[in-house]
């Protein structure tokens, strides 16, 4: 029961803080500033902000713009911008997750070497990009698009 009370008090403190200091994107406060002001540990703020939005319907938004941080939306435009930015980040996270899922496990034979500028490609991709003998596909276009000058 004490944990529920503690969580509620944390929510109340964060909601009151946002209402007093973070109204509109021009008054956004960074995560670290809010955590410091309220004495919150680690991910507690993130979890509370999400809970306030999801469970209590508060328009808690975040911005990476000129005034980065969290704020309460005061206009429909504030909400639209925040939703658009969150969807972009969500898509980027999903793309990253997919890339990790299909990536090979880090090579154990040489774990300190990384070739960023010439990554190893699967044989099927190498054959498509660089046909055997260096010949060009019919029509003079390259295998990855475009034509030779």
How would the blueprint of this fold be written?
Layout: H1 2-21, H2 31-38, H3 44-56, E1 60-63, E2 69-72, H4 76-102, H5 123-129
Antiparallel strand pairs: 1-2
Description:
- With 149 residues, the chain is mainly α.
- The chain has a domain of 101 residues: Orthogonal Bundle (Arc Repressor Mutant, subunit A).
- Helices cover 50% and strands 5% of the residues.
- The protein contains 5 helices and 2 strands; from the N terminus they run αααββαα.
- The chain has a two-stranded antiparallel sheet.
- Strand 1 and strand 2 form a beta hairpin.
- Helix 1 crosses helix 3.
- The chain is elongated.
- 9% of the residues are buried.
Which of globular, elongated, flat, extended, rod-shaped describes the shape? elongated
CATH superfamily of the domain at 2-102: Winged helix-like DNA-binding domain superfamily/Winged helix DNA-binding domain
Low-confidence stretches: 124-131, 134-149
- Tell me what portion of residues adopts beta-strand conformation: 5-15%
Question: Could you say which structural class the secondary elements and strand pairing correspond to?
Answer: mainly alpha
Taking all Cα atoms into account, the compactness measure Rg is 25 Å
Span between N and C termini?
74 Å
Number of helices: 5
Biggest sheet: strands side by side, in what order?
1-2
Q: Which second-level CATH architecture of the domain at 2-102 applies?
A: Orthogonal Bundle
Q: Would you tell me which CATH topology of the domain at 2-102 applies? A: Arc Repressor Mutant, subunit A
- Could you give a short account of the major beta sheet? 2 strands, antiparallel
On the 0-100 scale, what is the average pLDDT?
Answer: 79
- Helical amount: 40-55%
Number of strand segments: 2
């Amino acid at each position: 029961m004490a944990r529920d009370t503690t969580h509620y008090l944390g929510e109340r403190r964060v909601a009151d803080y946002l209402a007093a200091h973070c109204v509109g994107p021009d008054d956004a406060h960074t995560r670290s500033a809010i955590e410091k002001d309220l004495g919150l540990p680690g991910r507690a703020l993130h979890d509370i902000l999400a809970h306030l939005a999801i469970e209590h319907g508060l328009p808690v938004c975040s911005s990476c713009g000129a005034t980065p941080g969290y704020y309460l939306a005061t206009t429909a435009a504030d909400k639209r911008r925040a939703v658009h930015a969150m969807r972009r980040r969500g898509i980027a996270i999903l793309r990253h997750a997919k890339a990790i899922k299909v990536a090979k496990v880090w090579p154990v034979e040489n774990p300190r070497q990384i070739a960023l500028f010439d990554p190893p490609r699967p044989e099927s991709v190498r054959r498509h990009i660089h046909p055997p003998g260096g010949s060009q596909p019919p029509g003079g276009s390259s295998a990855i698009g475009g034509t030779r000058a």
